[in-house]
């Protein structure tokens, strides 16, 4: 079965990204992180260092690309990848009440 391609992060609702040229490499790194997270969940190892490293790589790119959340209150805040308590990857902003997205861009 073909895996559906994830939407580009710069097309997520309320996401602002200055370096849109970096989107392809961010999506590739996010795909790698997602596969590492799936392996970790399947192995029951939610503290996998593979996942930590894969997330760090994505977050370095998100920082370089200036990925921010444009929802209220201003100013826009940085967006990072992290794991939820069940070991699924999400994107989360730095607002006092964080906004969150699934990897497919669905707001949580
Ligand atoms: Zn936000």
Q: Low-confidence parts, pLDDT < 50 over ≥5 residues?
A: none
Number of domains: 1
The gross shape turns out to be globular
Cross-sheet strand order for the largest sheet: 1-2-3-4-5
Largest β-sheet summary: 5 strands, antiparallel
* Share in β-strands: 15-25%
Report mean pLDDT, rounded to a whole number: 94
Structural classification = alpha+beta
Helicity range: 25-40%
Beta strands, count: 5
Number of DSSP helical runs? 2
Give the SSE map:
Layout: E1 15-17, H1 23-42, H2 49-64, E2 67-69, E3 77-83, E4 89-93, E5 100-102
Antiparallel strand pairs: 1-2, 2-3, 3-4, 4-5
Helix pairs in contact: 1-2
Zinc ion binds at residues 69, 71, 77, 93, 95, 99.
Keyword list:
108 residues; alpha+beta; five-stranded antiparallel sheet; 19% strand; 5 strands
Describe it:
This protein is 33% helix and 19% strand. The protein has 108 residues and is an alpha+beta fold. It has one domain (9-102). A five-stranded antiparallel sheet has the order 1-2-3-4-5. The longest helix is centred in the first third of the chain and has 20 residues, at 23-42. The chain is globular. The two termini are 27 Å apart. The model has no long low-confidence stretch (mean pLDDT 94). Bound molecules: zinc ion. Zinc ion binds next to loops.
